[in-house]
Amino acid sequence: MHRFHRKGGKLYAEGVNLDSLADRLGTPLYVYSAGTILDHYRRLRGAMRAVDPLICYSVKANSNLAVLSLLARAGSGFDVVSGGELERVRKAGGKIAKCVFAGVGKTDEEIEAGLRYGVKAFHVESEEELERIALVAGRKKGRRAPVSLRVNPDVEAGGHAKITTGTYANKFGIPYELVAAAYRRYAGDRRLKLVGIQMHIGSQITRSAPFRAAVRKMIPLVERLRDRHGLEYFDLGGGVGIVYEDALASGRDGWWKSPKAERAMTLAEYATSIIPMLRALKMEILLEPGRFLVGNAGVLVAEVLYRKQTGKKHFTVIDAGMNDLVRPAMYEAYHQIESVEKPRPGAISTDIVGPVCESGDVFGHDRALSPLERGDRVAIFSAGAYGFSMASSYNTRPRPAEVLVSGTKAKVIRKRETVADLWRGEKKS
Ligand code: LLP
Questions:
Q1: Which of 9, 92, 223, 368 has its CA 20 to 30 A from that of 76?
Q2: Is the per-residue pLDDT at 61 higher than 90?
Q3: Do 307 and 211 share a structural domain?
Q4: Is 56 annotated as catalytic?
Q5: Environment class of residue 232 by beta-carbon count within 10 Å: exposed (0-12), middle (13-18) or buried (19+)?
Q6: Which of 16-20, 135-139, 208-212, 261-265 has the weakest average pLDDT?
Q7: Which residue has the higher pLDDT, 251 or 393?
Q8: Which member of 357, 368, 425, 429 is catalytic?
Q9: 3-state secondary structure of 175
Q10: Is residue 193 one of the residues assigned to a domain?
Q11: Nearest atom within ligand 1 for CA of residue 165
Q12: CA angle 333, 336, 341 (to 5 degrees)
């Protein structure tokens, strides 16, 4: 089913007309499709059913309470990276026993919270952190901290330099060669319980080869540690990529194949490339998808303010800025942009830019779009992951409202911020 689609030329999220929604709630506006999120969750589980994985949704991708509770009700666990995300999962009614706690810089307070609430495990990123967790757990007599080491398998996964994580050139994980010794060192420690092992090789990975290579490299190590220390699970991390090009037209919610896009792996290819190796392990398998579940389940709707022609270029200024969706400015990320109303005949080539005082505040260069006028709306696609969760109030711009659509129902799941919200806690001198 196409959850973002055109009907009579007009853009819809499920059964809800996006232009009417923007009339009612204003712009910029994040709109998510609940059906798409659930569909992606089920498809991933379905593709991997041979190993019956526990899916721990990576909260950082989109941490709205409504998104978390939707996934919690579907049975999802969670991957959190801060005390704040842990509180969100609790607030949303997620099961903390299905929650893994990652991050390179956990504070004592965060470790204590994880212990108190009973996370499934801490994903540990350095030996110093392991020592710290042991120390904090030691103060709480009788409570062993469940820990798994995050292994850096040193596999090149491609993608943008700022989101690759699985090589020795970045800060994540413990080097592959040092992992076994670290487990051995803490094997008899009564303050810790060694429960699993984790890896994460990067984000927006659209080929199966890096996953296969990383799993293949990890298997002998995982087997050895399973036998030696009784590890219960192997967590493969997240990183399954989505199609950003042509997200609307490609069908199936645009999450895999697109005739225009470079061919991305299908979910079946991802699964079949790793399942045989995983089955043989006979361990619990965890996955930490973020973008895959929510990326193509959201759009950012914005309104055209002005058009202008400089000596060289045509610009369309919209009311959403890089503070609302930073991915194009930060990663040169491509997001498809479409007119919300029925496209007018003809096409112009234009740069879609925001109002923020930065040259980098550009959503798309030289886009061929139907001619737009003041008051027209555009939808920026694939904005469900790392959109609102990375939004800021730079230029004292209140963050957008968020809406969750389910069938013909649209629910505001976060009110638009006000300027007064932004200076809450400040004092005049
Ligand atoms: N697990 C770990 C340990 C992670 O570090 C991440 C993402 C995930 C899971 C989820 O990855 P996903 O399935 O979403 O690829 N802001 C960037 C992406 C940063 C990803 C950080 N880690 C972007 O907008 O592209």
A1: 223
A2: yes
A3: no
A4: no
A5: middle
A6: 261-265
A7: 393
A8: 357
A9: strand
A10: yes
A11: 5
A12: 150
